[in-house]
Amino acid sequence: MVLTLHGITKFYGRIQALDNVSFSVPSGSVFGILGPNGSGKTTMLGIVMDILKPTSGTFDFFGKPATSTQRKDIGTLLETPNFYHYLSGERNLAIAAEIKGKGREDIHTVLEKVNLSERRTSKFSTYSLGMKQRLAIASALLGNPGILIFDEPTNGLDPVGIAEIRELIKRLASEGKTIIMASHLLDEVEKVCTHVAILKRGKLLTSGPVDEILVNEDIVELSAGNLLLLEQVISTLPGYTALRKYNNCLHVLYPPGTADLPAINQHCFNNGVALSHLLLKKKSLEAKFFELTNN
Amino acid sequence: MLQLLKVEWMKVKHYRTFWVLSILYLISVFGVNYISYLFWDARPKNNDMSKAIIGTPFNFPDIWHVVSYTSSFLMFMLGLLIIISFTNEYSYKTHRQNIIDGWSRKEFILVKIALTVVVALVATLAVFITALLFGLYENGSSFTFEKIEFIGYFFIQAVSYCSAALLFSLLFKRSGITIGVYFLYTLILENMLAGFLNRYADNIGRYLPLESTDNLIRVPVFKVIINQLTASYNTTTLLIMSVIYLALYYFISFRKFQTDDL
């Protein structure tokens, strides 16, 4: 395990931001922390980075209590890019590299990686939001750390930038790095993460491998004059995972991409049921997310 | 420590506000002493009365005292340098980033304390050179290290003002309010309180935090008259108080930065 949280609780005055959160991040995983705005994602990462103090609970890296030296080998982008406005991108990275105890030869490479080389000598204050975000990602990559922590990494980026950062994260993951990523964007988590923890109002709802938690499925909605007969006929169909009654319809659930509507129609017709309604619904992750985060 | 200071240097090196204020400060140290020199030079000469009261402030060894005293009116400028360097970190949230990048909280506050000492040292050096120049320029003045202790007192005073500025920055975080409170406290509020306590509480006002260091360097002229008007000062006690306050500033700053949410 790279990172383990043991019962982290955090109060801001009387507001409780985290409620007894415990989970572990396995080595080599891309670990998504998912939750709506204000669910405590940034607070949690802030505690792990020692810029916030937990009210109670502990955490450790590689089974040892965290130290500042360990942080030197973790690349982190937390909430907003924090840089000296009057310094150029390059000089800001030089400060970060010096603190991390890494050589400056990396600066050029990481700026290349986030496409910021051309503007490296411009002052940070002249950067656009997307460029600031890129610089923060570049800073996290300094010294080629084995663990990366990204809090909303695609914030402020345009669609091309978002795609680039996703590619970058996938590439980093394929190099065997452990990536912890907080996001409120579900498809982002789904597209790049192997594991996920879902937070709501400071409570951990669930955590584990993505394909177990964010199961995506095809839903075929159908209806006929005689629902009972329809149900009998459908139950003889192969390949579905679940069958549910839903108002005046039946919902037949299939693993993603396997529902074959013409075959279903044919099957019903052959068995003497004429369908009055047949529709394929892709269950959106959003729906899944609402399902998980609604009481 | 050198590595920490190197990072601090990288932060400050290209920070124009810091350098503009620093250079103007250095010019002003010379300027404020030049103003007092012009005043003194305009005195009625060959007048025994004025000689007896004022003495020869621009000759060695009194020059060490006079320049230290006059320059101490610019103390708040040193505090301002510390305040902008610290509150900048808060407004850019770079104090967080420094910790995230791998400094411990202790290292962060340690380097800021080192900065207060460096700023105080540079200011003291400027005062030393200014005193030297005026002393050597003045006719009938022969160089001596007698009364050089005033340069040392200036250093203690400068460290105190810088460290108080550090503490104020930590407490208020935003530059506007920190600067406002710091200026009003150092220029007016503490003096007001000191005056009140001196009058009604057996002169204990002189042991207030910045007042104790102010009183290390007392008015260099009109000594005969002033000594009759005010209670006597014990330099050793003032020095001890200054050190206690310094320790307190550092202790509170450390504690606060170690335990706060940043």
Give a summary of the structure in a few sentences:
Chain A is α/β, with parallel strands linked by helices and 295 residues long. Chain A has eleven helices and 14 strands.
CATH class category label of the largest domain in chain A: Alpha Beta
Unreliable residue stretches of chain A: none
Number of strands of chain B: 0
Would you give the CATH topology of the largest domain in chain A?
Rossmann fold
Instruction: Compute the CA-based radius of gyration of chain B.
Output: 20 Å
The secondary-structure element order of chain B is HHHHHHHHHHHH
The fraction of residues assigned to DSSP E strands of chain A is 25-35%
Low-confidence stretches of chain B: none
Q: Tell me the domain tally of chain A.
A: 2
- Tally of helical runs of chain B: 12
Distance between the termini of chain B: 22 Å
The N- to C-terminal Cα distance of chain A equals: 31 Å
Keyword list:
heterodimer, A: 295 residues, alpha/beta, 6-stranded mixed beta sheet, 11 helices, 14 strands, 34% helix, elongated, B: 262 residues, mainly alpha, 77% helix
Helices and strands in order:
The complex is a heterodimer of chains A (295) and B (262).
Chain A: E1 3-12, E2 15-25, E3 30-34, H1 41-48, E4 56-61, E5 64-65, H2 68-71, E6 74-77, H3 89-100, H4 105-113, H5 129-141, E7 147-151, H6 159-174, E8 178-183, H7 186-192, E9 195-200, E10 203-209, H8 210-213, E11 218-224, H9 227-235, E12 242-246, E13 249-254, H10 261-270, E14 275-282, H11 285-293
Parallel strand pairs in A: 3-8, 3-9, 6-7, 7-8
Antiparallel strand pairs in A: 1-2, 1-4, 4-5, 9-10, 11-13, 11-14, 12-13
Helix pairs in contact in A: 3-4, 4-5
Chain B: H1 2-13, H2 16-41, H3 48-54, H4 62-71, H5 75-92, H6 94-100, H7 105-137, H8 149-172, H9 175-200, H10 209-214, H11 223-229, H12 235-259
Describe the protein.
- The complex is a heterodimer of chains A (295) and B (262).
- With 295 residues, chain A is an alpha/beta fold.
- Chain A has 2 domains: 211 residues, 3-Layer(aba) Sandwich (Rossmann fold), CATH 3.40.50.300; 76 residues, Alpha-Beta Plaits (2-Layer Sandwich).
- Chain A has 11 helices and 14 strands.
- In chain A, the strands form 3 sheets. Chain A has a 6-stranded mixed beta sheet, sandwiched between helices. A 4-stranded antiparallel beta sheet of chain A has the order 2-1-4-5, with helices on one face.
- In chain A, strand 9 and strand 10 form a beta hairpin.
- In chain A, helix 3 packs across helix 4 and helix 4 packs across helix 5.
- The longest helix of chain A has 16 residues.
- Chain B has one domain.
- Chain B contains 12 helices and no strands.
- The chains are: A alpha/beta (295), B mainly alpha (262).
- At the A-B interface, helix 2 and helix 3 of A face helix 1 and helix 6 of B.
